[in-house]
């Protein structure tokens, strides 16, 4: 299993993916690898190659209340491109998922968490609402890991 925290910790709330990744890594969950990635979509398809389960975490911009968490099962439904549009990359998470789908290279289980951010300008640190969402996302990922372990155990 692979958890990938996407984003740039030097761009405010865009650092939520790496923050979640670090918190998951600190738990040292059995059979779970954790990586941080800039969020550039073309590399994601290669990163998840040969993985049975992949969980992506990224900041999203939707106009909703900052700290709101979205969870998508990418095997079941396309990822809404509009949510992930704040990225500085022209080819982001939604595009990577759809490229993987078109190429038949999606992992058997692909979950995507999007945390609504408030501030994406240069600067360290998450806003309070987004910081507050980190532990909830980590708890959800732990539940996902446990559910997968029960199914495959």
Describe it.
With 153 residues, the protein is α/β, with parallel strands linked by helices. It has a single domain, classed as HybD-like (Rossmann fold, 3-Layer(aba) Sandwich), CATH 3.40.50. 36% of the residues lie in helices and 20% in strands. The protein has a five-stranded mixed β-sheet, with helices on one face. Helix 1 links the parallel strand 1 and strand 2. Helix 2 crosses helix 3. The two termini are 13 Å apart.
TL;DR?
The chain is an alpha/beta fold.
Structure keywords:
single chain; Rossmann fold; 36% helix; five-stranded mixed β-sheet; 5 strands; 153 residues; alpha/beta
Topology:
Layout: E1 2-6, H1 16-27, E2 33-37, H2 41-47, E3 53-60, E4 69-73, H3 93-103, E5 109-116, H4 128-152
Parallel strand pairs: 1-2, 1-3, 3-5
Antiparallel strand pairs: 4-5
Helix pairs in contact: 1-4, 2-3
